[in-house]
Amino acid sequence: MPYLCLFLRLIVRPMLREKTRSLLVLFAVSLGVAVALAIELAGDAAASSFHTSLQTVAGEYNLEVRAAGGVPQSLVGDLARLPWAIRVTPRIEDHATVAATGETIPLIGIDFIAHANDPDGARFSLPQNTSIFNDINSPDALWVTRSLCDHVGGTVTLLINDRQHAYTVRGFLPSSAQVSGDVAVMDIDAAQQATGKRGSVDRILLKVPDRPGFAQWQQRIRTLLPPGVQLLPQGSETAANRRMLAAFRWNLRILSYIALLVGAFLIYNTISVSVVRRRAEIGTVRALGAGRRAVLLAFLAEAAVFGVLGSLLALPLGRFLAGGAVRLLSATVNALYVSSRPGPLALSTGSMALAFVVGIGVAVASALAPALEAARVPPTEAMARGRREYDVRVERRRDAVLAVLLALAAAFTSRLPALGGKPVFGYIAALLLVAASALAIPALITILMPVLSAALRRLLGVEALLASRSLAGSLRRTSVLVGTLSTAIAMMTSVAIMVGSFRQTVVTWMECQLPADFYLRPAGEPGADRYPTIQPGLADRIAKLPGVAAVSRFRAYPLEYQGLPATLASAELDSPQARQGTEFLSGQPSSVVLRALATGNNTIVSEPFANKHHVHTGDALTLPLGSRAVPFHVIGIFYDYGDEGGIVLLARSTMLRYLPDPAASSLAVYLTPGADLETVRARIREAAAGTDVLLFSNGEIRREGIRTFDQTFAITYALEAVAILVAVLGVAGALISIVIDRRREFGLLRFLGASTSQIRGLILVEAGLIGILANFVGLLLGYLLSLILIYVINQQSFGWTIQFHWPVAVLIAALSGVYAATVLAGLYPASVAQHLNPIEVIHEE
Amino acid sequence: MTDEFKSRNAAPPEERGLQVPPIVHSIVSPDESSCSFSSSPPSGNVGPVLSIEGVTKTYTTETEPVRALDNVSLAIEAGRFVALVGRSGCGKSTLLHLAGAMDFPSEGQVVLDGVSTRHLCEGELTQLRRQKVGFVFQSFQLLHTLSVIENVELPLLLAGRADPRPAALHWLAAVGLADLAYRMPHQLSGGQMQRVAIARALVHGPRILLADEPTGNLDSATGNSILELLQRISSECRTTILMATHSHEFASAVDVVVRMRDGRIEEVAVR
Predict the structure, then answer these.
(1) N or C: which end of chain A has fewer CB atoms below 10 A?
(2) DSSP letters along A173-235, please?
(3) CB neighbours of A128 closer than 8 A, spacing ≥ 6?
(4) Longest dimension (CA), chain B
């Protein structure tokens, strides 16, 4: 109780006295925690849907059979006829677009007879006195979630591949199916017909008895399957998706902690200021009998107060921010990884505990250094020495040497390989660089301030002199402030450079990779795991049109390789135009490699695929194609930025030998020289009448690609903005504490003839100087961090080669914005300083 | 009490139990003499440098209003060295603040070198301070982030003077600290710091120097030297000095002693 009393009097009371400053710090901390919480909640919600979309109404199974290009339907009968009590359920799993809304939904084809015999299978909701078997032979019969259509007999028009079909709703999916979002289910025959997957199914689910054991059953069944067909534990695709998404979530999580890192600087600054300001008090209470431990605990408790209250505030704020984050995240996940619908956002006990652990942990850890310093000071020294002497105790040389050592350690660490597939050492290198920068700042300020001071004094007069001297005089506080803001700026700069470089790389890549004049693909929102097709006849019709030189058909299938999702694709390389434009890591000419691709069992793989699976040119690659496992020879690795999972590309003629489905996923149309673009466009539209395909000119498809790219990275910009906001709030809070600490100086200046506008100017110039220094350090640190992001973290996480590019316009706009915000953050403290009563403050001592 | 002083104190003499002087306290300047300190001797309005006319100052506290000055009148001619003496809380500092155009009286008016502060706005008060007033404080109040010379230059810089260095050097030399111009304040002794503060208070050629307990933080020997310095400034320049002090010993060294009690002028004594 006595300690509580002391804590309330010596710590809480001053916090309450400086309400604005305390609230700013509190809000900054809560925002940092809230962002981390929001990303965690949104990530969970986005990832939770993987097992609920395509695996709807799956029931309880323990094995599944899959194959690239589809499992031959004959295998269903073969498995069902085995003399064991195995339940066998084939499924079609695809996507359809609801014509009325444009929403893409999972389309599931199930064997209703097998399903009816499945004791674990979900029961459909049907009209009274009807049976599901009444409608299974109707090709237009559809069972949907109630949100899609709320009455039996209603019509739902679906776009499947490049065709629209009208379906009649016969019943509803059971609530026990735990469906997240809309889903349509049809009988498997109707689904095969609608999706064009005649003779094959996407997956066969198996339920094996408990004995003789799961492993034995796997071994027993695998020996009966053709070599190209995979037998996997059920849910392995979800696990594969999760593995693939892990790097994305990991990087996003790290990004979300930037705001918290900035918040940690603020706590450090706040506690440092608190220690400096109460130095005499520390001496007094030590002299009156308080031990070092009590002093240490008092300041840690002050930080913990910010941590606890910040975490409490972060709960509703994080839940609110998660609503926005989940939309951005879901768009990215759909565009890059897998079709999914976010699950409900749930503020679980675990996530709340995380908020508190992170909030309090970061706050207390940040306060440890200044609190220890306060505890170590002898009482006599604390009482004798003033703030100024304490401030100048920053050991610039020692810190500068440490900074150099840390920077060297960062350079070394950045060269270490990924740990468990994660760029752990890349992030450690980034943290070391941030620490090195923080330590180098005092020396940097000492060097830069006289130069800045002289220049600004000529420009802005006495305010600049006083501001620069004050900042240099309070080196410790200035360093922490500049460190806080520059860290946020560096993070923003590095991500802006990384994204800008990536964008420019993609633009350049698209210029080479998309040489055709027109592209066609089925209508509907594209997705990384959606493989809709165009009917085969359309390509032939277009090829015969006047003005068309060649049509190249591109076909893609989902592929699982070494437990990770990838894309198996084929391209038609008969025309010389189609053999242009692909860039290889080896620098080999596109035409040479692609001509060789069309011969024998050759393949080329994309850079992300090669990096993920450690594939090199000249390696052999065995691919599961239909029911066969076919060895291929890798003759090249090409740059690709369209598929994070990676692409294995064959010549179309090779692919057709193993997977004879002639439908294409997209078409590239090359025009004859001199052909009029708009005339040919009209002819293609005419040829495509009756099909639902989208036609893009070369320019349009590039714009579409960039739009998707920008959408994908929208969340990173949002996270950067929050980190900057936290830092600017911190600057405002710190400037208020500067005003409070230096009120006597401001009072004195008024006595010496300073006008109130000069006092305001002084604070604004200080804010401006902090902004200039932070921008300078931030830009430098940001550049170094961007190198780690581009050449280490990106390479190890995603496997893309990104060409470095300065996004000059973006950086100028962002840095100017931050600078303006920093100066604006000085307005309130300036107003406080302006309204100080000089007589009162000069006589305080 | 001589003819030089006429008192017009509104408080009835019987209330204070004192033999009060005439109603108006008018402190007339001695003969002008040459000023070895100033490069540009103060010049200004003919008549009193400072005229405090029926001034009352009331502060509002949480519980009740406090009358810090009660109908005080005082007129000080140029070149006089005046000491305000009295116990803590008697109104000395309040009088200095009003005299220095740092505050407005609740009643009455303050006329500084012919300019009444009554109707001035904040900006005009600042201008008045810049031109006519210099302050010296008990705790020196030097800015520790600035060097000695920069501290002295400060009033000129705040007033927008382009080249303050020569004047600052001149005044530092005048207070005997030319050698220490480029040191930082924490490298100086208390007495040296107060000399710097005096140089800073005089650098812009004020008509009146207001010193609030200038020897309060110094030992007696150093305090004496500061007092001597102020005496020289007063005698050799025409700078009027109004000094608040606790010390009766120091008070005896000035031209005029104004004794204050409970917000009123109790007695004016001329040496």
Answers:
(1) N
(2) --GGG---S--EEEEHHHHHHHHT-TTEESEEEEE--SSS-HHHHHHHHHTTS-TT-EEEETT
(3) none
(4) 57
Q: How far apart are CA A445 and CA A823, in angstroms?
A: 19
Q: How far apart are CA A828 and CA A407, in angstroms?
A: 37
Q: Which residues of B touch A755 (CB under 8 A)?
A: 122-123, 126, 158
- Within a 10 A sphere around the Cβ of B72, how many other Cβ atoms? 28
The pLDDT assigned to A180 comes to: 61
Query: What distances in angstroms separate CA A732 from CA A481, A667, A815, A829, B233, one per listed residue?
Result: 10, 56, 18, 7, 45
Q: What pLDDT, on a 0 to 100 scale, did the predictor assign at position A272?
A: 80
pLDDT surpasses 80 at A602: yes
> A177: Cβ–Cβ under 8 A, 6 or more apart, which residues?
A56, A57, A122, A183
Q: Is the pLDDT of residue A814 over 70?
A: yes
Contact with chain B for residue A755, Cβ under 8 A: yes
Cα gap A368→A272, rounded to integer Å: 10
Q: Give CA–CA dist A617/A472, Å, rounded.
A: 58
The two three-digit tokens of residue A118, written as one number: 């499945």
Task: Report the alpha-carbon distance of residue B208 to residue B127 in Å, rounded.
Answer: 14
Beta carbons of A842 and B141 less than 8 Å apart: yes
Cβ-based neighbours of B217, under 8 Å, separated by 6 or more: B138, B139, B140, B190, B194
Is A469–B102 a contact, with Cβ atoms under 8 angstroms apart? no
Q: Is the ipTM of this complex over 0.85?
A: no
Please say whether the dihedral angle defined by the alpha carbons of residues B107, B112, B115 and B119, taken in this order, is positive or negative.
negative
Q: What pLDDT score does A52 carry? A: 42
- For residue A782, which phi and psi values (nearest 5 degrees)? -60, -40
Q: How many CB atoms lie within 10 A of CB A291?
A: 11
CB contact under 8 A, B157 and A388: no
Q: Which of B103, B157, B213 to mutate to test the interface with A (most CBs of A within 10 A)?
A: B157
Q: Which residues of B touch A472 (CB under 8 A)?
A: 145
The answer to whether residues A604 and A636 touch, using CB atoms and an 8 Å cutoff, is yes
Chain A residues touching residue B135 (CB < 8 angstroms) = 751-752
Q: What is the pLDDT of residue A175?
A: 61
CA A695, A698, A702, A705 torsion-angle sign: positive
A443 vs chain B: nearest CA distance in angstroms?
17
What's the pLDDT band for A125 if we cut at 50, 70, 90?
low
Helices (H) and strands (E) in chain B, counts: 8, 11
Burial of A415 (C-beta count, 10 Å sphere; 0-12/13-18/19+):
exposed
| Interhelix angle A714-741/A292-336, nearest 10 degrees | 160
Question: For residues B200 and B124, is the Cβ–Cβ distance under 8 A?
Answer: no
What phi, psi does B245 have (nearest 5°)? -155, 150
Chain A, 381 to 400: residues with Cβ < 8 Å from chain B are 388-389
Q: How far apart are CA A507 and CA A509, in angstroms?
A: 5
pLDDT tens digits along A135-147: 777 888 898 888 8
Q: Say which of A388, A473, A838 has its CB closest to residue B102.
A: A838
CB contact under 8 A, B103 and A473: no
Nearest-CA distance A268 → chain B (Å): 24
B102 and A839 in contact by Cβ < 8 A? yes
Stated as kind and residue range, the H or E segment containing A667 is strand A666-671
Following DSSP, what letter does each residue of A69-120 receive, concatenated?
Answer: T-EETHHHHHHHTSSS--EEEEEEEEEEEETTT--EEEEEEE-HHHHHT-TT
d(C-alpha A405, C-alpha A426), whole Å: 17
Greater pLDDT, B41 or A28: A28
As beta bridge partners, residue A207 has A87
The mean pLDDT of B8-30, rounded to a whole number, is 38
Residue A393 distance to chain B (closest CA, Å): 15
